[in-house]
Fold this sequence. Notes:
By secondary structure, the protein is mainly beta. The chain has a domain of about 110 residues: Tumour Suppressor Smad4 (Sandwich), CATH 2.60.200. It has 2 helices and 13 strands. Strands 4-3-13-12-9-10 form a 6-stranded antiparallel sheet, with no helix packed on it. The protein has a 5-stranded mixed sheet with strand order 6-5-7-8-11, with no helix packed on it. The longest helix has 12 residues.
Amino acid sequence: MSDDRTARMDQPNWSRKETDPDEQKTVMADQENVTPPTLPMGDQGRRGWGESTGPGFVRSEPSHPITPPGQPPFGSQGPEGQTMIIKERPTPVFAWLVVVDGPDRNSIGTVHTLHPDPTSLGRVSGNHIVLNDETVSAQHARIRREVKEGQEPVFALFDMGSRNGIYAGPKDSYKDEENRVYRHELQDGDYLLMGETTLVFKKL
Length: 204
C-alpha cells in the first residue's frame, strides 16, 4: 500500500460569524447619538450667506429681507409714505420799555427790548433790566410773553414781591392806588411806575 504523501491544504474557514443582536443594537444606538458639528457663535457671525459651516451644512440666504426690530418696513415712512404738516408760524411781536422819568437822569430815554424769554427788572445786577433807583427792589418785576390759542401773544407783567409795588395804566391815572397791579397784561402805551422810575410800554 502506497503512502499518500500529498499534504492536504487546510481549507479556509468561510463560515459566517454570527452577529450578536445586542452588539448590533449598540452600533445603531451610537449612530443615532451622533451630533453634527456646530460652529461657535463668533464664527457664525463672521460667515456670510451661502458659506459652508461644516460638512454637509450650507447657510442659505433667507427668501425675505430681515427688518430690524423697532423699524417699520421700507416704504412706510419718508417723503412718499408720510405727509409733513406745516404748523402756522406765529406772528412776530416787537415790544420794548422806554425809561421816561426817574432819579437816574442818565437813564431817561433808554430803550429796553423785550424778548420771548422772561425779562426780569430790578435794582441789582443779574436782572435783564437794571434800574438805578434805591426805591426799586432787588428783583422788582418780571415780564413774560404769553401765547393764547387763537389770540395775539401778550406781554404779562408780574410783581415779584416788591416793597413799593407796581402801578400800571394810562398816562393820566397810572399813579393812582387803584392801578396797583400784581399781574397785568400790558397794552401799547401803558405807563409803569416802579419805585420812583417811570417806563412806557410800546408794542408793534
